[in-house]
Structure formats: structure tokens, C-alpha cells
Amino acid sequence: MVNTVKESGETSLSYNTVTFHPTSTAISMNSTYHEEYNEEFHLLDFHIIDESGRSIQHASGSRNRQVKKGLYLNEYTFFYDPLKEKPEQLTITPFLFDTTEKTITHVRADWESKPVTLSQGEVGSVPVLDVVSEDHAT
Q1: What's the alpha-carbon Rg for the chain, to the nearest Å?
Q2: CA 44, CA 98: separation in Å to the nearest integer?
Q3: What is the Cα–Cα distance from 72 to 35, expressed in whole angstroms?
Q4: Residues 70-90 as b or e (16 or more Cβ within 10 Å = b)
Q5: Residue 100 DSSP code
Q6: Are strands 25-34 and 71-80 parallel, antiparallel or unpaired?
Q7: CA end-to-end span of the chain, whole Å?
Q8: How far apart are CA 7 and CA 22, in angstroms?
Q9: CA–CA separation, 34 vs 87, rounded Å?
Q10: What are 71's strand-pairing partners?
């Protein structure tokens, strides 16, 4: 639900608006957290999927930040890829980037028109339901 506040300890996220444009999907939200968490929350990002399990890719965004009485007050506007059809619901999962150096495993295989699940480590997984190529983009 938009205009909903989610809290974890002394950290809160308020989801304000979700707007579907022909060129992007825009999501605005606010967060508050203690000044001591500044370095950790610089790495905050969001994994977004629709009710069919399709992941929506992050395109760009902006953040406005101020500190008041030991709290960071952030206003975010994130832009994601446009959707061909307006979904009934989106699941937004906040996560922190892991900055420790790790090796990346590359797996290459021919597409067999069967769903494939890609592990994202501790944050979960991403199902690939279909592969579509249009205008030199896949």
C-alpha cells in the first residue's frame, strides 16, 4: 500500500507514490534512521517484483538528505523500467549492498524456454520467466 510506513527497529520507510509512465515506473519514498547508521544506509537499494514474479529493473534515482536531531531524513525518487501492463501489486524489498569482495560466477546457457531461477544470495532469488529481444536490447 502506498502511504504506508514500514519499521524495523528505529529505522522507517514510508512508501509514498508509485506512478506508471510510458517511459518509466516512478516510486517515491522517505526513510529515517539514526545518524550512526550513515555509512551502512548509503548502500540501501530496493528489489521490486510484480505479482507474476517479474523483477523490475532500476534505471536511475535521486535522494535528498538532511540531518535533524541525530536522525537522517531522506526523500527518494527511483525510476525503474516501464511496464507494458500495470500490475495489481508490487513487492518492494529493501536491502543493503554487500561491499565485501566476492568472486562472480558466470553461467552461460542457451535459452530453453523454461523458467530459470537466479540466486541473489541472502536477499533471495530472481525468476527469469521469458527472454524477449527488441530493438537490439534483451
Answers
A1: 17
A2: 10
A3: 6
A4: ebbebebbbbbeebeeebeeb
A5: S
A6: antiparallel
A7: 31
A8: 32
A9: 34
A10: 34, 68
pLDDT at 101 over 70: no
Q: Are strands 58-68 and 116-119 parallel, antiparallel or unpaired?
A: unpaired
Average pLDDT, the chain: 82
The grid coordinates of residue 48 equal 521490486
The neighbouring-strand residues paired with 5 are 14
Predicted confidence (pLDDT) per residue in 112-124, tens digit: 888 888 887 777 8
> CA-to-CA distance for 24 and 83, rounded, in angstroms?
7
28 touches 16 (CB < 8 A): yes
The residues, ordered by sequence, that sit 6+ positions from 85 with a Cβ below 8 Å of its Cβ are: none
pLDDT tens track for 36-74:
776 666 677 788 888 888 888 888 888 888 888 888 888
Given a contact cutoff of 8 angstroms between Cβ atoms, the answer to whether 8 and 63 are in contact is no
